[in-house]
Amino acid sequence: MQSLQEQLIQEIRNTPSSLLQQILDFVRFLNQGYQKPISNSGEEWPPGFFEEVIGGWEGEKLTREPQPNYTLREEMK
Asked: How far is CA 3 from the centre of its chain?
């Protein structure tokens, strides 16, 4: 019985060359996710998460304006 690694290598050998770049990109994408250690227990955002992802807000304080009443629609049949 072949190991998983051997099975992957065999599948890659049987893959058309036109798909190899996509496979390489996908494997690199998967490996990238495993390189960053997960430091929290899932209950909190990691320190600096929002600043890294979207940056920090430095403008006026954000407020939510009052929303208008919603319109009742006919029930779908």
From this structure: 29
Sequence-distant (6+) residues with CB within 8 A of 39 are 46
Rounded Cα–Cα distance for residues 45 and 64 (Å): 23
Query: What are the pLDDT digits (tens) for 55-77?
Result: 666 778 888 889 888 888 888 88
- The domains of the chain are located at 1-34
Exposure of 43 in the CB half-sphere (CA atoms within 13 A)? 1
For every residue of 5-45, DSSP letters joined together read: HHHHHHHHHTS-GGGHHHHHHHHHHHHHHHHS---S-SSSP
Q: Do the beta carbons of residue 12 and residue 23 sit within 8 Å?
A: yes
Contacts of 46 by beta carbon, 8 Å cutoff, 6+ apart = 39, 40
